[in-house]
Design brief:
Blueprint lengths: L1 H11 L13 H23 L5 E10 L3 E5 L4 E6 L6 E2 L4 E7 L2 E6 L4 E6 L6 E2 L4 E6 L8 E8 L11 E6 L4 H4 L2 E8 L6 H8 L2 H7 L5 E8 L25 E8 L12
Antiparallel strand pairs: 1-10, 1-14, 2-9, 3-5, 3-8, 4-7, 5-6, 7-9, 10-13, 11-12, 11-14, 12-13
Helix pairs in contact: 4-5
Amino acid sequence: MQFRQQALAKLQSPEELDLPVRFARPQGWLVLSVTVVVMAAASVWAVTGSVASTVSAPAILTHGQGSYILQSPVAGQVTGVLAEEGKRLPANSPVLKVRTAEGDSVVRTITAGRITALAATIGQIIQTGANVAAVEKVARAKDPLYATVYVPAENAASIPANAAVDLTVQSVPTQEYGVLRGHVKSVDRSAQSAQQISGFLGDNQLGEQFTKDGRPVAVLVELDKSSGTKSGYKWSSADGPPFALTSMTMATGSIRLADQHPADWLLP
């Protein structure tokens, strides 16, 4: 009965139609306005803005033509080593003297280059096709150095032409002298095998090292030159290291990829 009386009293009371209705407080309108502005700005940035990214990969400093592995065309015993590591030789220069069943024979360089490694010693018995030396294809002392960066194949398509590259050289203290500057000269669009890399660098171990996580793509980097540094190349520091760079020096390359719009991340 008590609830019925309360309901009847409610029906008999007049409606409070003259009182204003408050839909939201002023603070709520402020928060809503700020939210709308932020969402609009984020949408514009997602379409017109850009985000830079980089890919890092192992690299090595070489001369542009790479190296080759010199193999013996004959079988026999090595009786003389006629070349020295580090020396530049013209094409057809003698490297080894080998005593064969038919007489003495000389193993010679195929093209001009610098001997980076000798794998044969006096008294050693070698077979036809044995690797006896690694020769870097450099004919002149002033031939420029390049860097080859072995980038994962899935990142190759994102590397733009002439992209900026920073190289952290293993033999150079980064905190003191900074990084070596360069830019992309070319991108090999096909992934390379360990044998291909070994043939270019003249080192089987490097071929295995650069392919341990899969077959990479070779990116050739031209080093930016500078007349004000001892090395002759541009560094992030003013002077760079107080010594010259040598080929077959290991490094890590950081390549700037093509900028992306944030909205692209939402697209399939």
